[in-house]
């Protein structure tokens, strides 16, 4: 697990689902094979842990909110479908 993540985010990443920047990003580490496509395509959003499995980068929320952040492309490129991305709209 990456140093510098907020404790609540760290817990959520362990659980496989985090929210922020208007989207939910789920990483299923039981499915991830460490191919690294996500980190290659969106290196400011995804990184890999010591075992090579995907995890969210330290500043992923800011990076994911940026214009043209290739979060969905990274999810589509994952060869085992380990990443899910869902838009979250506020109910106001
Ligand atoms: S592309 Fe998929 S399999 Fe590869 S590291 Fe990312 S989540 Fe894991």
From TrEMBL:
The keyword Cytoplasm does not apply. It holds the Pfam family Fer4_15. Its cofactor is [3Fe-4S] cluster. It comes from the Bacteria. One of its GO terms (molecular function) is electron transfer activity. Keywords: 3Fe-4S, Electron transport, Iron, Iron-sulfur, Metal-binding, Transport. The keyword Metal-binding applies. Ferredoxins are iron-sulfur proteins that transfer electrons in a wide variety of metabolic reactions. This is Ferredoxin. It comes from Streptomyces candidus.
